[in-house]
Write the structure tokens for this entry.
Amino acid sequence: MEKNLVIVESPAKAKTIEKFLGKDFQVMSSYGHIRDLKKKDFSIDIENNFEPIYEVPADKKKVVSELKAASNKADVVWIASDEDREGEAIAWHLFEALDLKEENTKRIVFHEITKNAIQDAVKSPRKIDQNLVDAQQARRVHDRMVGFELAPVLWRKIKPALSAGRVQSVAVRLIVEREREIQNFTAEAAYRIVAVFTKVEDGHTYEIKAEYNKRLKTKEEALALLESLKSSDFNIEDVTTRPGKKTPAAPFTTSTLQQEASRKLGFSVGQTMMVAQRLYESGKITYMRTDSVNLSGLAIGTAKTEILDQYGENYHKVRQYTTKSKGAQEAHEAIRPTFINEHEVQGTAQEKRLYDLIWKRTIASQMADAELERTTANISISGSEGKFVATGE
């Protein structure tokens, strides 16, 4: 009989963690939430301080039965669900549904699935954070109250199966208000004149694109200027060059990872989170639900080693990022590779591409500013006070 039972959320994570713990540990999965509000009932006792009424769904009864049997045999139960609000709520539901006792139940969290992280978590357990549990319950109750009232109206007035919630309902209103502002906006037309100057030298053709330094209000003005330019002479009257710098972006949070994966990889939000979940559960990246841009001292040190080995001293600069958003948890880390010296991973094509994006962003965040040279050329027009301006970087 195992002395210790460890309960995690997903079976994939269970397999990885089991490799890091000894024979005295049994690792089982809750397969996500084991309790929720009843599907068909309102399930909120409004008269009793909005108390939620939970049930174990039919598809989770077997899992709960197996977990309860295993917990009754174990000396210590370690609840190792994720470290966010949902994970804390899962821990609380497990504690309640399995009739666990405080004296032999320990809550552990980790933001990366490595041997050191798991062993450190076991050394420093804590109690279930009731504040996080309450936050999740408030969100769940709010979702049910809004959806239960609004969804039937949508079904009657628009079409069946539409959903409404505490976030999307407000977001729809913001979008509608913005769209009405756009529709009521009176647009004023303006015309830009862009010229492409060419020069042939040593058999090569060089082009420089420049823009007229004034906007023209009417099409007639623009056409008249174009006509006059046909007989004009153009001269570069001065060229200004000045140095510039570009600072690297901070490491990924959940939202910035979703944005970059959409822009560079064409991933949807759901696709990004699904692939990131697989990378996390297989121990490749840190926890993918975070609003922190903080990096651990170990990560900063490992990134430095990689940059010095590959690029040299001039390309490295230590950067300690702090999170500006209110309520962000600095104890958490940004999304980064678990082992920064691993430049690529084995897995599906999607996993490889997303990992590559995360690895490059992490390394770039610890590099020196890019050094740029910004050039501006003013091109005079004979017989005109206006001029063309060309800029380059």
